[in-house]
Design brief:
The complex is a heterodimer.
Chain A (H helix, E strand, L loop, with lengths): L15 H4 L2 H17 L3 H18 L3 H4 L7 H12 E2 L8 E3 L2 E3 L1 H27 L2 H12 L9 H31 L9 H7 L1 H24 L18 H20 L1
Antiparallel strand pairs in A: 1-3, 2-3
Helix pairs in contact in A: 2-6, 2-11, 3-6, 5-6, 7-8, 8-10
Chain B lengths: L1 E11 L7 E12 L3 E6 L5 H8 L7 E6 L13 E4 L12 H11 L5 H11 L4 H4 L9 H13 L5 E5 L7 H14 L4 E5 L4 H4 L4 E6 L2 E6 L1 H6 L2 H5 L6 H11 L11 H15 L1
Parallel strand pairs in B: 3-7, 3-8, 5-6, 6-7
Antiparallel strand pairs in B: 1-2, 1-4, 8-9
Classes of the chains: A mainly alpha, B alpha/beta.
């Protein structure tokens, strides 16, 4: 049994998407998300789907990994589809009808539209973390948040918290998987019985997982203190990233493209 | 009746550009009452082999069978017990007894409580004293023994352990060695370890892995007779063994080469007496 996590799991391959400046990638994601919410038809949505497809291809991230994050969303996608497709009013029902409930063609299309929007949003944003290391990501965030330091915002500390949080997502997932495997080896079953039985089956996983997390947090805090960490003030950087012409071009083109498509199509 | 791996290979993320071959054409057999020691440097594939034998991974090539069954099959449930590295980090119950009972209860054993008591006694923890204690309050050595008891209580015919003595003091290591010696009367025991010295004197077979392939496979005495493949795999024999091999190479005839310092001294003194 695997723990379904995609977020934070960097795929170490060499690609033009990987080598883009993380700030540019974050800017593209903002434009992509904005455009995705502005678009109001399946034609416009197909442009965004094509964009995700192209980036996926260029990034050389295996599609199986990029789409893995959707597993946890299965229920939400089904709910979105049904919530729009099912109708109670007999007059508007045009496709299938079972008793008082019917499926409306317009509703079905709307359901598909919103489900596709969720899928693209998840896959598109996953591509950011799949092609950017957590350290690059938080360095970029810190640079972007730095101006806020003038009004007392602790940009360095927040960036460090984010670095640690992102860094420990895969570790925690691996730890959970290790405990699940160990308890499975002791005969525990997580896929049998009703909902309550399944939830209860996870107690032998969650208790040690949280105990270990608290221990690790304590150890990490002591280790950071021992290495003289005193917050972000005055910290310098070994690698200073610079936005190149290519990064600016991708950023500006994506803003122009996504927002235009979002408004016009 | 054995736990057998035949020509087993395994690749993590197989078929992808970043896939890593962890094991290559490994053969291994564990029968009841055997003690097999699997050793190798870090990243040599020891832990992967353990997971394959327990049916937690499916081999990319070759077969693993426990008494003729696929170890991941439902009917093989309870045939192989496994103790992972740092098993004490998997405690969850309020008392040690309840935690040890988790496995046998999952297997539906009617005598789960008795098995838990027996397992605790085997690892040298009195169930009347330790059974009611919270597992989170035990010392490092006690916790490790308690966690191993959790696997012993499943009464499986094959027991696999990953680095069972790492990080323990001499007393803790001795307790675990004694517990495994007792367990061998009813199970085949396979130990994966960086430091095989603890187990070599009792071992029926030693398997050394090097970059996922078997560099040496044989009895400890066969290993001492020709340690070259073992050392080429980046492994070192225990100092007490190396001393005996040097003495033997200098021409002194030794009946046995052993890891236990007292027995080694006795063997050396006997050899010196015979040669003088």
């Amino acid at each position: 049994m695997r723990v379904p996590t995609t977020f934070g799991q960097y795929v170490p391959v060499d690609s033009p998407v990987h080598s883009l400046d993380p700030r540019a990638k974050m800017g593209v994601i903002v434009a992509f998300t904005l455009g995705l919410f502005l678009v109001d038809g399946l034609a416009g949505m197909s442009v965004f789907a094509a964009a995700v497809g192209v980036v996926l291809l260029v990034s050389r991230v295996p599609p199986r990994i990029a789409f893995r994050g959707l597993r946890a969303l299965g229920l939400i996608l089904v709910f979105t589809l049904l919530a729009h497709a099912l109708r109670w009013e007999p007059a508007t029902v045009s496709l299938v009808r079972v008793g008082p409930v019917g499926v409306d063609a317009d509703g079905l299309l709307r359901g598909v539209f919103f489900a596709v929007r969720i899928v693209l949003l998840v896959v598109g944003t996953s591509l950011l973390t799949l092609t950017t290391t957590p350290v690059q990501l938080t360095d970029a965030l810190e640079t972007l948040m730095r101006p806020l330091g003038r009004i007392g915002f602790p940009a360095g500390e927040v960036a460090m918290m984010l670095t640690i949080a992102l860094r420990f997502i895969p570790t925690t997932a691996q730890e959970a998987e290790k405990i699940i495997v160990a308890q499975t080896a002791r005969g525990a079953r997580f896929d049998e019985g009703g909902l309550v039985a399944r939830v209860r089956a996870y107690v032998p996983v969650l208790v040690p997982l949280f105990v270990n997390l608290f221990r690790r947090a304590e150890d990490l805090a002591v280790a950071m203190d021992a290495r003289c960490y005193r917050g972000g003030r005055g910290r310098t950087r070994l690698h200073i990233s610079v936005m190149r012409a290519r990064d600016w071009a991708v950023l500006l083109l994506s803003w122009a493209g996504f927002v235009t498509v979002g408004i016009l199509v | 009746m054995a736990l057998v791996a035949r020509d087993v290979s395994y690749t993590y993320a197989g078929g992808r550009s970043f896939g890593v071959e962890a094991l290559r054409s490994v053969d291994l057999s564990l029968k009841r009452e055997d003690l097999v020691v699997v050793t190798g440097t870090t990243g040599s594939g020891k832990s992967t082999l353990l997971r394959l034998l327990a049916g937690l991974l499916a081999p990319s090539q070759g077969t693993v069978a426990v008494d003729g069954m696929d170890p991941s099959a439902r009917e093989a449930r309870g045939s192989v017990a496994i103790v992972f590295q740092d098993p004490e980090t998997q405690f969850f119950a309020e008392t040690l007894h309840a935690d040890v009972m988790f496995g046998p209860r999952n297997l539906g054993l009617d005598y789960a409580s008795e098995e838990a008591d027996r397992a605790l006694r085997t690892v040298g923890l009195d169930p009347d004293i330790y059974g009611g204690r919270s597992p989170f309050t035990l010392s490092g050595g006690e916790a490790r023994r308690g966690a191993i008891a959790g696997a012993l209580a499943m009464a499986a015919p094959y027991l696999l352990l990953d680095e069972p003595t790492s990080g323990l003091d001499a007393d803790g290591r001795r307790s675990i060695r004694e517990a495994l010696a007792a367990e061998r009367r009813r199970s085949g025991v396979l130990v994966v370890t960086h430091d095989p010295m603890e187990f070599l004197d009792e071992a029926t077979a030693v398997v050394a892995l090097d970059s996922g392939a078997v560099a040496f496979s044989g009895t400890p005495q066969e290993l001492y007779a020709d340690p070259a493949p073992y050392t080429r795999a980046g492994l070192e024999l225990p100092p007490v063994v190396r001393t005996q091999l040097l003495v033997r190479d200098a021409g002194m005839r030794l009946e046995h080469v052993v890891c236990d310092p007292a027995r080694a001294a006795e063997s050396l003194l006997t050899a010196r007496g015979a040669s003088s």
